[in-house]
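Justification of resources, computational component.

The compute hours requested in this renewal are based largely on the per-chain cost of generating structure records like the one below. Each record pairs the submitted sequence with a full structure-token output. That output is archived, and it is also reused by downstream analysis tasks.
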Amino acid sequence: MTASTASHPLDRYGWNDAWATDFAPHGAGGLRPGRVVRVDRGSCETVTAAADGRVTTVRAGTGPVASSDPLLTPCTGDWVALDPDQEVVRVLLPRRTAFVRAVSSQRSDGQVLAANIDQVLIAVSLADELDLGRVERFLSLAWESGGQPVVVLTKADLVPDPVTLSHLVEDTERVAPGARVLPVSAATGQGMDALAALVDGTAALLGPSGAGKSTLVNALTGADAQRVVATRDSDGKGRHTTTTRDLLPLPGGGVLIDTPGLRGVGLWEADHGVAQAFTDVESLARDCRFPDCSHRSEPGCAVLAAVEEGELPLRRLENYHKLLRENERIAARSDARLNAEILRSWKRKKALGRHMMERKRGPQQ
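The structure output for this chain reads:
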């Protein structure tokens, strides 16, 4: 198979000439392209084109591409090369983009939540008090993913005062430079046409439980694709109605990757993403007296001056420092794990070499 401008059965799932070029060597070997729509233990559901050109869903084993590294295991959104005879994934095509978070604050592993995404839709419920720090955290990971972030303020119908709603949108826009902020209500349809028109290519929908993601998915897909359960009356928290990451086609073209509610979103090697999410701080820093200014107490610090003048909120600067520290800790743990793996590998090779030398020498007399 070679890159071509001719239509392909998987076009609506994101197939294009670039993916055709990447896949060509595998197609020459009799494999078939597919895109992962859901991952289960030891297998995945994959859409692919059958011999007659129709799109079909295949449950394929993932044994040949299994890895102990969670960053290298198949994920929803991945493009793969399938063996149509044995129904197994033979090759995982290199990812263009990926939304990755730290598994936990106590470990140095990363987890891919969605692969090969063009947009990251960050769902933030207006039924709760607006947490700008959480928005900044999601934006940092979204920018790092390589996708274009969009902050979707859900349940806008619960803010009937238009002035209050306008203020909430403006507050969010101030912490989301370069990202679109859109208030929507799946219940009333407010903003949904604008959101549907905005979604293009592959969009990943992320956010905490109770943000109304499942309702949003059903509205965008025009079907009851995901089960919806009301939030708990006691604390307003969601109930994790979505338990898997699913890739769903949209009626207007493109696909949406729905994800379970996230209780935590730890940073994962997101230095570029943090810088992009805080471009206002980074821009001010260029005017600091010292190039290595930490923006804490140095004389001539343009960032601290902006805080004193009310141009930059202190809360935003403090969260900037917090995310940088967290990212540095994760990077240090990752480096330590890599060094430990190299050391273990070196010890294994050394032991193997010693064993081979002893075999060559033979038994001692």
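The first helix runs from residue 17 to 27. The first strand starts at residue 32 and ends at 40.
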